Amino acid sequence: MAEAFFDYLRSKLAFDEQQLSQLKPHLKTRHVEKGQQLLRVGEVCLYSSFVLEGCLRSYVIDAKGKEHIIQFAPENWWISEQISFFKKEPAIYYIDAIEATDFVALDSAFFEELNRVVPHMQQMLNDLQLNSLRSFQKRLISHLSETGEQRYLGFIKTYPSLSLRLPQWMIASFLGLTPESLSRIRKELQDK
After folding, report:
1. Model confidence over 169-179: pLDDT tens digits?
2. DSSP line for 35-69
3. Which H helix or E strand runs over 70?
4. 116 CB-contact burial (10 Å; exposed 0-12 / middle 13-18 / buried 19+)
5. Rounded distance, CA 12 to CA 30, Å?
């Protein structure tokens, strides 16, 4: 299973097999069933997850008990509560499995070993963090300035495999729409 993660690393940087073999003992692959929580609000995030198969999500629950989905992480996506992970602070959102999911759990020791084995790796990690920040910025701008239809089309572009895999209420939550509004938008797009 970890070979998919190594393929991902190879796509980002040149690794030799010796470097990868040094990292292999530090990889922890895990399996969670649909609905299983990986992180709860108030806990410290102990690892960053790279999804091999399945789908994870991060979300918050407001004072009225309504869920607001922050991110989906299907295959080949990363997910973690980064501030909690790096600063060892309590998490401000939840992470759970939408589907039965296999993932690589990468703890701080893995990243330390990665930096030791691959000295130029820090640049890739910095790029990943900047990409994550850019994604959140784009999402915020989208919620502030785009129509529901534009947000839905952006969702399909970002997560092409998920529109058929996820329940409509989850997609609506991610987009900041009601399920009824999303249904209307889908119907209007289908009629065009």
Report:
1. 999 999 999 99
2. T-EEE-TTSBP--EEEEEES-EEEEEE-TTS-EEE
3. strand 67-73
4. exposed
5. 23
